[in-house]
Amino acid sequence: MNKISLKIEYVELDNESELNEEERTLLRKAREISNLAYAPYSNFSVGAALLLDNGIIVTGNNQENVAFPSGLCAERVAIFSAGANYPDAAIKTIAITCKSKQFIVKEPLSPCGACRQSMSEYEVRHKSHIRIILQGETGKIRIINSIADLLPFMFKAEELKK
């Protein structure tokens, strides 16, 4: 038996002033689009803003449905929109914010497993790391340099071809 450890590194910032202008813009766009989320069941709104390598910003928000599995997370709404409209553009950075109507979200929240897997597909497809910026409504900001750090054992298409 071999015991193996896994380690990731990320950056934590105290506030937005430590970000560059491009990153602040992405967070602002993610916050703005979260206000348009359709979240009547959870009352939890998420916004995502992607910066593509062609300079275009694509946004998305969570879209709920009374048949819960039929809804879609903000991250996948934005990623799939980018893939449909700009299939050759790599995603450089994604900013994700969230808020609740019932409490203040003070901690950055990570994307769900399905969103992580969807992001990993684009990272592998474009052979380019996706930088992830996370923030709740207030408080610290967490920056991860690659989806591989959030999903180290990601499922890849090459696994289907063996």
In short:
By secondary structure, the chain is of the alpha+beta class. It is built from 4 helices and 6 strands. Helix content is about 25%, strand content about 20%.
What are the secondary-structure elements, in order, as H or E? Answer: EHEEHEHEEH
Question: How are the strands of the largest sheet arranged?
Answer: 1-6-5-4-2-3
Shape: globular
Q: How many strands, which pairing sense, and closed or not: the largest β-sheet?
A: 6 strands, mixed
Features:
globular, single chain, 4 helices, 6-stranded mixed beta sheet, Cytidine Deaminase, domain 2, alpha+beta, 162 residues
How would you describe this structure to a colleague?
- This protein is of the alpha+beta class and 162 residues long.
- It has a single domain, classed as Cytidine Deaminase, domain 2.
- Helix content is 27%, strand content 22%.
- It is built from four helices and six strands; from the N terminus they run βαββαβαββα.
- The protein has helices at 21-34, 74-85, 113-126, 147-150; strands spanning 11-13, 44-52, 57-61, 91-100, 131-135, 141-144.
- A six-stranded mixed β-sheet has the order 1-6-5-4-2-3.
- A hairpin with a 4-residue loop joins β2 (44-52) and β3.
- The longest helix is centred in the first third of the chain and has 14 residues, at 21-34.
- The model has no long low-confidence stretch (mean pLDDT 94).
Give the SSE layout.
Layout (H helix, E strand, L loop, with lengths): L10 E3 L7 H14 L9 E9 L4 E5 L12 H12 L5 E10 L12 H14 L4 E5 L5 E4 L2 H4 L12
Helix pairs in contact: 2-3
